[in-house]
Amino acid sequence: MQTVVAGPGRAEPGRPRLVASIPALIGGLLWIPYGVFEMLRPLGEDRAYRGDRGYEVVTDGLVYRVYALPGGLALLLTSVALLRLLGRMGLPRGRARTASRTLAALAAGLAIVGLAGVLVPFDPLFTGPRIFGTLALGAAMCLAGWGLGSRPAVDGRGARLLVLGALGLFLLPLWPLVYAAELIPEMGGAATIALFGLGWVLLGVRPASAGHPIAGG
Question: Long-range contacts: 96-102, Cβ < 8 Å, 24+?
């Protein structure tokens, strides 16, 4: 779904009307609180590692859902936004186009599985799909950006996809770098996830053109 973010009526000369992708905007914004909740845990701890089970057990279901739900929804919405974006960008036919769409659909599917883990709540059912779903999303964005290299988008969206996708891939080692290696402070981890979300917000806004509808779709 899309909406016009410029004022009503005809666009003023030199000021093109802008179109916003609702899934990209909402999904991008949801990455921001997820980074804060996941890294800083402002409401206290919600999980505890159980050596006899080999995974983290949820100790506070309500707090766990508050922390995890934004992440699950963010992954789902940005994956859906990428699928819609790929359908409009005119990505050349080939392996990059097929792979990027497949990976984006996989990310969306994993996000749905992860949301089930939030509702149960059962952390391995959320954390595993969140990890691999974010990895699939980042890889899909990189492939799409690379595929557009031979025919750059007018608004530079191909390059932005490539850069933002690389940041999405970096989210995979982010948790070990914060908690295991302690090379990145927790605030830095939250800022990295927020930056990924803000990138999606910017990616979701584009100039309206005759070839694209300015509402719906």
Answer: 96/143, 96/144, 96/146, 96/147, 97/144, 97/147, 99/140, 99/143, 100/140, 100/141, 100/143, 100/144, 100/147, 101/140, 102/140
Name the amino acid, one letter, at 4: V
Q: Has residue 213 been placed in a domain?
A: no
Compute the average pLDDT of residues 171-182: 95
Which pLDDT score, from 0 to 100, does residue 102 have?
97
Q: What is the domain count for the chain? A: 1
Q: pTM value?
A: 0.86
Q: In this structure, what CATH number is given to the domain that contains residue 157?
A: 1.25.40
- The pLDDT value given to residue 37: 97
* Number of CB atoms found within 10 A of residue 176's CB: 12
Give domain status of residue 214, yes or no.
no
Q: Is the pLDDT of residue 138 over 80?
A: yes
Residue pair 138/167 in contact by the 8 Å Cβ criterion: yes
Q: What is the pLDDT of residues 103-123, one digit of tens each?
A: 999 999 999 999 999 999 999
Tell me whether residue 179 is in a domain.
Answer: yes
Angstrom distance (rounded) from CA 135 to CA 138: 5
Predicted pLDDT of residue 100 = 95
**Is 21 within 8 Å of 84 (Cβ atoms)?**
yes
